[in-house]
Predict the 3D structure of the following.
Amino acid sequence: MFEDKSAIYLRVAIALALLQISATFLIHDRYRLTLSGDILPALSVVMVLLVFQANYRRATGAVRLFWLLNSIGFCLLLLSQLFWVCFDLVLRKNDVSPLFGDALFFLTLIPVLAAVALRPHSESAARGLRLRRVDFLLLMLWWICLYAYFVVPWSMVLNNDTKYNLANAVLVLAGHLAVISTLAALWWQSKSEWRRFYGIFLLGSCIFAVGGLLQNVALIRGVYYTGSSYDWFYGIALSTFLAAGRSGASLTPLRDDVETKQGLRRLWTARIAMLALISLPVLAIWGYLYGQGPEPVLIFRLRMIFGAMLLLGSLVFVKLYLLERELVRSVSLTESSLESLRAVQTKIFRSQRMAALGRLAAGAAHEISNPLTAILGYSELLSDNSKLPADGRQFAQGIQQQVRRAQAAVNSMRDLATPSPGKNLQFRKD
Amino acid sequence: MSNGFPGLQLWFALSLVLVGVAVFAAFKARPSYALTVFGDLTQLFFVASAAGVMFANGLSGRGRVRVFWLLLSLGFAIWLSSLLMWAYFEVWLRRPIPDLPAGDVLLYLKIVPMISAIAVAPHLEGNSRPRMLGYLDLFLLVSYWLYIYVFWVLCYRLAVNDQGVYNFHFNVIDALGNQIFLVVLGLTAVRTRGRWGILYMHYFGAAALYTLASVLSNVAIDLNKYYTGSLYDLPLIAALAWFAFLGFAGWKLSPVAPTPPLSSAETGPSSSRKIIFWPARLAMCACLSTPVIGAYLLFSKDNLDKIHHFRILATLFAMLFMMFLLFLKQDLLHVDLMRALDEVSRAYANLGRFKGRLLQSEKLASLGKLVADVAHELEKATAVILDYSARIMSIPDADEGALNMVGKIDQNASRTHLLVQKMLSFARETPLESAPVAIGPLLDSSLKLSRVSRCANISVDFREQGDSLAVTGDANQLLQVFLHIIANALDAMEDSTSGVLSITMRLEDEKVEIEFADTGMGLKDPDRVFDPFYTTKSVGQGTGLGLSTCYGIIHQHGGEILCRNRPGGGAAFRVILPAVNKNAEIATT
């Protein structure tokens, strides 16, 4: 049933993309063109979201988180689209600052990047996620900080469209490239179904990135308008994402081929997050010492960095606290397990002597039964010996009795020594 | 102070004279060059002797104590260098002290190693792992302390040159540092008992006196009444003498806590945890305060002056540096955590194996108990047989053939009786007995008890030496060892068509060497054979404890057990035990 639904979504998305392309040629009225250019992609995004949501509901573990993050990303994309719908069509304003919509568009990339960096195809991704989550959060916040540092002041502090558009274009491109390179690495590493899925996703991201780049270049050159041919890529990319969602619908994590050390991956995630954090004061120092630009922008940037450092620093605080707690917990676990180890060890040592006796039972039984047979033979001869006085023969019979008693004991000892089928069975023959 | 520091009495005499002269001079002498020289040199003497003695203490101590004394001596060395700087001007150049930020910085920084020394907690014995983290936190706090100095004091020299504000701020922050120092010291002194507690008390006393002295001299300087060697210098000299005395008092002080070892082992981990966490929280708060300070600077004023610029830059650099330290800390924590998790998983894997083996061992042990019961039965039977055969033999005028047969019966019965008794004494839980044991008969009976006679494919090459070698030890335990080694050899040769177990004994250097060599498949890993729970046998066959138990027994006997793979194939075990004098009485086994 689901397959049918997602197929319908895909057809709708493709139809929307085609509609948009044809609209560029057919509609000449600017307002209607803007209408189609804003609403058609929004509908496509809704289609993509529907598929991603369905995937999210069916998946478990890290894959579930993957779809959740992607859904969040595309929700942000939808919001950005709705922003444009609102301003272009409802309010019909032209002079509004594009910052809000652009920022939402940029923010789309961050959860998607986090989702991809999760490496959902490997089974080990779900393990140790608790500590890595903080690192992921740190990295996501770091991207936002970059945006706030480079792009935001040109719109919020000064209204410099040229610089704003350029900075926005560069940062969006950087985000796209990060997503693409991560996806390419994943595509390279993975196999079979996951590889196909990553491939389609990669294709979608590439189209998305090219479209975004073309749009921004056109915007900088001043030749862009909503609904123009630069928007085509957008619709095509969304259809590709939808196809990716379809192919990834029933994927489950695979066992890792090479058992990489879980701790090592965690260490590297943490290191990258921390390096990102360190880069902020470096950026601030560089901007403060060599930064060119109007003073208000510089001040804004400094304030932003200090605020970000407080926020991210608190996150690091939380993380180090968690790490320390984990460390203490595992140390105490080791201690307690060592204690019980010692207890078991003493028990084993205590039972060693008896165990050794049990082990030598078979050999001893053999060693004893031979002389007993000899005694039995002699005593039988003695008891039949007519030259012996009567009491002597009685003693000989007594000896026979004792030997039988002893033989019974030896037999039971041998039986004890060979309790179950196994190696000792062969000794039973003799 | 039974084994006091060499030259202690001389030092005491000298310092008494110096203090006496200082008191006299402070009241009687007028400010002069000679007084300045005397005042400076007295201070130099005490600080130098404190640094020297503490350095010597550091060299003679080890572990945390060493770090403690070396840090303290570093603090005094820094102090000494700032004093030398002043003495150079006052005594050598005969000039009033110029305004020297370098000297101020040194004087200010000396407190850092002094506080750090306490944080090392030399009175506790602990493991080294959390200490690394503790040092990192400490380093973070030190850098923060420096940052505060640059931010609050040094900016009045580097950004703008305002001597008055600089001096005021310096005095404030120096006093603040001293007071923090005092609080930390006081808390430590109260919480520590024993000789270290007394030492900390002395340290606290000296530091309190020093704080008082510095406030006093600052006031005197402000009132323009201060000159070197004056009355206001007396508390300073006394404090310095006290500090130096501290070094003498701490000579050869070991970290062993006076509390009984059991409770100290219990408090060990918890106190070391406190060492990690307390400075960690503080360091983190310090880190987080830097962006707050920076933001405050930016929001408090719109147009920034020179001092603001300087402070913002200082804050940014401090932030960068502290973040770098946090990066290191996170790495350390991660590495530690990885190792700890590894240990946990290994410990649990071991525990699982142990438990499986405990089950095995207990099964065998219950079997052993049953065997012991049977052996009792056997012992009774053979005793009766021996009794009857003796009675038959005592019958007068029995014929030759009958007596011969009775003799055979008696022979066989006593052989069985001896074997059973040996088994029983082996089963008995006896403490380690030490008696001379003849090795030859012991090896003989262990061969008999083993299943070697039933292995048709295995021949034994064992020659008992004529002069019987003997060792001192517990016959039962040694029997257990031999039985185990023989059983191992038999297991190794089980599948071969013809195996030879050769046992040789010889006396060498007052030691008996017994070698068991087999022609089996050899040892997979000769280095690990004696590790507990190392086994190559399939599950349920061996506990892997046997050889490690053997190792323990032989070592208890003051001997050695070695193993190697023979060049021609097969394994060889060599047991080396100290021999006893041949003439000594040898117990029958």
